[in-house]
Automatic annotation (TrEMBL):
InterPro entries: ATPase_BadF, ATPase_NBD, Euk-type_GlcNAc_Kinase. Pfam families: BcrAD_BadFG. Keywords: Kinase, Transferase. Residues 7-309 form the ATPase BadF/BadG/BcrA/BcrD type domain. This is N-acetylglucosamine kinase. The keyword Kinase applies. GO terms for molecular function: kinase activity. SUPFAM superfamilies: Actin-like ATPase domain. Transmembrane segments: none annotated.
Amino acid sequence: MSVDIVIGVDAGGTSTRCAAVTLDGRVAGRGRAGGANQNSSTDPGGAFRAALREALGAAGDVTVVRAVFGVAGAGESGHARALATVRGVWAELGLPGDPEVNDDVAVAFAAGSAAPVGLVLIAGTGAVAARVRDGRVLCRCDGYGWLLGDEGSAVWIGLAGLRAVLAAIDGRGRPTVLRGRLADALGVPPGDPQAIIRAVHDRPPAELGRLAPEVMGAAGDGDPVASGIAEDAARRLLTNLAAVAPVPETAAGSAAAQGAEPDREPVVLAGAVLAAGPVAEAVRAGVRRRFGVAPILAIDGALGAAGLALRQTGAPPAAHAALLAQAAPQSADPRADGTTGLVAS
């Protein structure tokens, strides 16, 4: 007998993840494929198709009743193209209904918290900060793509490392171990700027994010140039998060008038840059210091999308929370109360 499910998809610049989830919150199937960012990936439709097929194949005899896609690059300017791509693949696979297509920001928040409102900071291939309410983005900061923004993202870090290497080669900058590390990662001689330039321009922008672990590794080893890049990335990410946060004085004044402590909205961190390493550590400390909460690490964004889809079927927020709990989400701060995102006393 067919089982009713919802579909959640999280598509970024590097990978696309899909989860098929039963209405009682059980994960029935998963799928994964390449990137589907509308601005930087080479074949978004192929990635959606492969991830959906894998997840549905694992789920077995099922009927899709709701689907939510969170797609990087599907903001206001890219939404029509993303919607057309998703609908085309959806129809090709013979799936019923009309999937909801949004960008990946609200999905990232829903992958860390089932709260109705809160803040999310994403730093993966790209970077953006936002405040989210009921599955919708209220306001955002950055997320402008690798050429105009995405400050603190993996691509931004990789490019900062490359600029530091070129400056070290031509005498403008300090010596750095990145000269050898990034040349090895690119497969070029360490002292040849033209070879570096050719290697960079031969790659899609999203692939430059693969250099970020080399920069972060050098920072962890104490290289001052790499450490400076990590510090700058964390500072920019925290500035962006502060730009979308509620004005503290407003929240405090409202609570004080009622004789209560001001509510603190949860802060969710998502993306590989914020999972571990020097940037992640600095951002976690900054969130605790500036916002008085311990940040929560998002789990697989496909489960966040599935949680939003569950809620659209009329399932209570508790079903969304239970789905997140199954995947054992962890606070980004080991001293935190993981149930509320507040710092434990």
